[in-house]
């Protein structure tokens, strides 16, 4: 696969950098982006904050211990997605093969663009200059024969770096690369591999394949190829990507809850989030999933129910979730709730036969139109508008460092 030329572009401290550009008073200062809930975490830290040890995933109090002067800013999803969309559109000027990997990173297949732009390095410098000029932002870029190595390369020099791994450099690079630096090696896998005495990709490549297969199954073959720096997965543009398989949303609550009316209010909101996203994708689902995490962090409950017909309306999703909840004996206060729709098919655009169902569909469509134009929950269910929530956006979605990829739309 040495004829492939793959670029990975990763925006540097994206959320924090966008905030610093939109508010000059934040420039050069330690900034931590947080969610709107009381028990939120740091989702992105500026490089000024990272110098003090502030890291993604820290609790607010922990981050403030590291950096007492840390400026906390509630994240603005709309602002970040608007900026990232424009950056991804800019990438299309260099190749139509752009795969959005997350809200702040993308892969580009440059093999067909080299004759026009001269070299992958030239494309990288052009893209970096345009992003800096138009948005005031920096990015780190990796160029390599495949996606695995391109992402590894982009991590090597941050911020504002450019690293190229050429085909004849792969063996030497993998020999010294720690296994945890590879995309796809998480904490658990890293721990399991280190228990086998595997610390570098070179050691992973030389480890007996039969033992990897016995311990990890078919994943053992993939690990062996990763240790060699082999990755044959193509760059898949959005229009050619896999169809949506599940639509879901979860949220960590601002406080532990056990009262049924509170639980119902959050479940209704989650059902609306899931229903609205399903309608946006033009799909309906037959299986509804409910996820509950107790306050002790260790106990998760997941139950599902398969219905007789496909649904996408928020009220129908909520009713199905209620039936699942009624079958669960809650033993502790709840910290996290999640709702998911699966077993999907593309929705029939024909209006329902019965007048009452047509009325509900038209009302749902009208709600979506208003909320799409003016923002989430500008029009919502009356039971969500308690005194606690009036005049607010109800509950902001739980933020994660990976952004839009982590809302469980697969």
Provide a concise account of the structure shown.
The chain contains 15 helices and twelve strands. With 410 residues, the protein is an alpha+beta fold.
Q: Radius of gyration, rounded? A: 23 Å
N/C terminus separation: 28 Å
How many strands?
A: 12
- Unreliable stretches (pLDDT < 50, length at least 5) are 384-410
CATH class of the largest domain: Alpha Beta
Topology as a string of helices (H) and strands (E):
EHEEHHEHEEHHEHEHHHHHEHEEHEH
Structural class: alpha+beta
Describe the structure.
There is one protein chain. The protein is α+β, with helices and mostly antiparallel strands and 410 residues long. It folds into three domains: 1-165, Reverse transcriptase/Diguanylate cyclase domain (Alpha-Beta Plaits, 2-Layer Sandwich); 170-228, 5' to 3' exonuclease, C-terminal subdomain (DNA polymerase, domain 1), CATH 1.10.150.20; 242-407, 2-Layer Sandwich (Dna Ligase, domain 1), CATH 3.30.1490. 39% of the residues lie in helices and 21% in strands. The protein contains 15 helices and twelve strands. The chain has helices at 14-22, 47-50, 60-66, 77-91, 114-117, 120-135, 147-154, 170-176, 187-195, 201-206, 209-216, 219-228, 260-281, 314-326, 355-374, and strands at residues 6-11, 31-34, 42-45, 71-74, 98-102, 105-109, 139-144, 162-164, 247-257, 283-294, 300-311, 334-346. It has a five-stranded mixed β-sheet with strand order 5-6-1-7-8. A four-stranded antiparallel β-sheet has the order 9-12-10-11. Strands 3-2-4 form a three-stranded mixed β-sheet. Helix 4 runs antiparallel to helix 6 and helix 11 crosses helix 12. The two termini are 28 Å apart.
């Amino acid at each position: 696969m040495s004829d492939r030329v793959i670029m990975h572009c990763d925006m540097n401290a994206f959320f924090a950098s966008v905030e610093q550009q939109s508010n000059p008073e934040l420039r050069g200062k330690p900034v931590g982006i947080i969610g709107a809930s009381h028990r939120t975490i740091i989702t992105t830290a500026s490089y000024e904050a990272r110098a003090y040890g502030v890291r993604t995933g820290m609790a607010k109090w922990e981050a403030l211990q590291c950096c007492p002067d840390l400026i906390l800013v509630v994240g603005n999803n709309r602002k970040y997605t608007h900026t990232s969309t424009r950056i991804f559109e800019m990438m299309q000027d260099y190749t139509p093969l752009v795969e959005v990997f997350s809200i702040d990173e993308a892969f580009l297949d440059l093999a067909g663009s080299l004759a026009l732009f001269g070299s992958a390095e030239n494309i990288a410098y052009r893209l970096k200059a345009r992003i800096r000029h138009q948005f005031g932002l920096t990015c780190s870029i990796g160029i390599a024969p495949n996606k695995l190595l391109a992402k590894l390369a982009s991590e090597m020099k941050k911020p504002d770096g450019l690293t190229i791994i050429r085909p004849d450099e792969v063996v030497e690079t993998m020999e010294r690369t720690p296994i945890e630096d590879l995309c796809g090696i998480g904490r658990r896998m890293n721990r399991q591999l280190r228990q086998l005495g595997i610390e570098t990709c070179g050691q992973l490549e030389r480890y007996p394949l039969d033992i990897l297969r016995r311990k990890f199954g078919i994943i053992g073959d993939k690990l062996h190829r990763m240790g060699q720096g082999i990755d044959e997965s193509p760059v898949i543009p959005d229009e050619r990507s896999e169809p949506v398989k599940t639509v879901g949303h979860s949220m960590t609550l601002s406080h532990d809850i056990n009262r049924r009316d509170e639980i119902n209010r959050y479940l209704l909101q989650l059902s609306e989030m899931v229903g609205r996203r399903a309608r946006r994708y033009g799909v309906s689902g037959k299986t509804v999933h409910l996820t509950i995490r107790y306050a002790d962090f260790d106990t998760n409950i997941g139950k599902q129910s398969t219905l007789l017909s496909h649904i996408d309306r928020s009220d129908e999703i909520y009713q199905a979730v209620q039936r699942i909840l009624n079958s669960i004996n809650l033993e502790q206060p709840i910290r996290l709730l999640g709702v998911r729709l699966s077993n999907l098919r593309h929705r029939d655009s024909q209006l329902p036969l019965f007048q009452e169902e047509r009325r509900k569909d038209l009302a749902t469509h009208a709600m979506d139109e208003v909320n799409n134009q003016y923002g989430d929950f500008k029009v919502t269910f009356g039971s969500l508008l308690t005194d606690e929530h009036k005049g607010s956006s109800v509950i902001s979605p739980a933020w994660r460092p990976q952004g839009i990829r982590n809302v469980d739309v697969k």
